[in-house]
């Protein structure tokens, strides 16, 4: 109906219709049609607003980037995310705003996924600084905890285990505050991530301790040992027990240890 009324004229209602159609198509996993609708909306926005900076244009660029990311097309995802991020930087300057924070974090995720850890580190750090200006450690502590986890993951990927451990421990401590030391999957994940760093450092005693803590948390949460959450815990414990046996002094042992503990340290999109 709106297309009949407005044709190709960039009317706000038609722009919104294409946006909504794109979001629905994405939710139905029709990602090609979703990109097409979102790009139509973006073209009309640019025609309507011209060269002026507008938050809706930046937001739509981010939505297109998200769909490309879901396709695994990180190159196009980063292209559109950078467009949106550049516009947000011009709109908000150095003013701490949630839209700019979100674009920092989304850009960092894409940089991390493509192995550009230096850029990802810079983007995550800028996002964290802005996050702390907006929220402090409260009333949005989970957002800050997620940022600490993401920074830990980048440092771990770069082989900077000391810094990775520092940020994973910050993540753990905030999760203690959030969940008041009650068993929660986020705490179990934090223990596993810390354990994986200790393993990379060759500290197998500490590795075993933290993976065991993760397993104990999962036991309290789920009870049933057949739950998928236990798979990684059992694998990690088995690997560490093997490593401890192989690295313990023993007569005539030429076996070489492997490094295959499974961290759960992928950066989160959660804001």
Poorly predicted regions are 252-260
Radius of gyration: 23 Å
Q: For the terminal residues, how far apart are their CA atoms? A: 36 Å
Q: Compute the average pLDDT.
A: 87
Indicate the structural class. mainly alpha
How many DSSP H or I helices? 12
CATH architecture of the largest domain: Alpha Horseshoe
In total, how many beta strands?
0
Query: How many independent structural domains?
Result: 2
Identify the CATH class of the largest domain. Mainly Alpha
CATH superfamily of the largest domain: Tetratricopeptide repeat domain
Largest sheet: none
- Strand content is under 5%
The 3D shape can be described as elongated
Helix proportion of residues, in percent? over 70%
The topology string of helices and strands comes to HHHHHHHHHHHH
Secondary structure topology:
Blueprint: H1 2-6, H2 12-27, H3 31-49, H4 55-70, H5 74-92, H6 98-113, H7 117-134, H8 141-157, H9 161-179, H10 185-200, H11 204-222, H12 229-247
């Amino acid at each position: 109906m709106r297309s009949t009324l407005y044709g190709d004229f960039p009317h706000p209602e038609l722009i919104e219709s294409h946006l909504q159609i794109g979001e629905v198509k994405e939710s139905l996993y029709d990602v090609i049609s979703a990109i097409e609708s979102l790009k139509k909306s973006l073209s009309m926005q640019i025609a309507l607003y011209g060269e002026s900076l507008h938050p809706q244009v930046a937001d739509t660029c981010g939505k297109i980037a998200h769909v490309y990311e879901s396709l695994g097309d990180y190159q196009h995802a980063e292209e559109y995310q950078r467009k949106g991020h550049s516009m947000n930087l011009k709109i908000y300057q150095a003013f701490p705003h949630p839209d700019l924070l979100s674009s920092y974090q989304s850009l960092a995720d894409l940089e991390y996924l493509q192995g550009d850890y230096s850029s990802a580190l810079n983007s995550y750090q800028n996002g964290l600084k802005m996050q702390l200006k907006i929220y402090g450690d409260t009333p949005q502590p989970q957002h800050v905890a997620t940022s600490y986890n993401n920074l830990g993951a980048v440092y771990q990927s770069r082989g900077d285990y000391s810094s990775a451990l520092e940020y994973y421990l910050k993540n753990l401590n905030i999760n203690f505050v959030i969940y008041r030391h009650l068993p929660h999957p986020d705490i179990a994940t934090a223990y596993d991530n810390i354990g994986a760093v200790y393993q990379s450092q060759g500290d197998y005693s500490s590795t075993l301790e933290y993976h065991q803590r993760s397993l104990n948390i999962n036991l309290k949460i789920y009870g049933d040992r057949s739950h998928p959450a236990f798979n990684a815990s059992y694998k990690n414990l088995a690997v560490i027990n093997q490593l401890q046996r192989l690295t313990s002094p023993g007569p005539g042992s030429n076996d070489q240890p492997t490094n295959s503990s499974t961290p759960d340290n992928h950066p989160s999109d959660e804001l």
